[in-house]
Amino acid sequence: MDDTLESNKEEVKASKHEGKEKLNRDSSLRVSVLAEALPYIQRFAGRRIVIKYGGAAMVNRELQEAVFKDIALLSSVGVQPIVIHGGGPEINLWLKKLDISAQFRDGLRVTDSQTMEVVEMVLDGRVNKQIVNGLNKLGALAVGLSGTDGALLNARPLEGGSHGLVGEVSKVNTDLLHSLLAKGYVPVISSVAATTEGLTHNINADTVAGEIAAALQAEKLILLTDTPGILKDKNNASSLIKKIHLTKARELIREGIVEGGMMPKTKCCIRALAQGVSATHIIDGRIPHALLLEIFTDEGIGTMVVGRGEM
Fold this sequence. Notes:
By secondary structure, the chain is an alpha/beta fold. The protein is built from ten helices and 14 strands. The termini are far apart.
């Protein structure tokens, strides 16, 4: 009996020792992560980072929460995040509920007046407010906007109206954004905008994010996607290109290596860089806390596209 008690005591003692060692390792890891993040926090304090929020991170609740926490943390350490969003899955859900068929051409939604009403209702009335509420709950001061508010964005019909009420950005009016950012607010902007005649149009959210990043001369444009980034081989996730110059990115498009849904995202990055954005990133929003991993760690997780002779 005494031997059994002594054995149990030794086991408890060993277990406590292992637990203490694990706690010390975890604490050391946290300190290491913070130490790695510090120079990035200092570098990007007061800088503007435009985030296009989309893909699985909008659908999966855990990923949603992780994105909201990342954005709230960025704001709390002095970074100025600007969030741009679409809402394709939610739009499709409501079109189905209302028995309105969804049509696509060249990867873009063909938008008639009936569909546009649903798009505006979903993006401005539901998705935008869900993001704002999620950020505010975490202590960020989020403000929901569409491109029509304060004439933030001016639209024109895409390709002469070939896709119905689908538009492109003709002008960005940054005064409202400057005022909000100066007071610590986080603008959350839906990709709906009006023409000078007051006719609302649906605009690709990647395009909106790129144009706003350029107009603000943002430090970074980050596109949350459902892919690891730009791949040398689209069927091999391990072929991720970690960093690429915009001239090489153009070559990959010409060679057909960048194709499909990755092509407009890569073109969006190239255009933003050409207009003065410091760096652009295509990252996998399916990874929890992808934003912090890309911005505040040495390795990052996606593809960084750069210009201005940098590499």
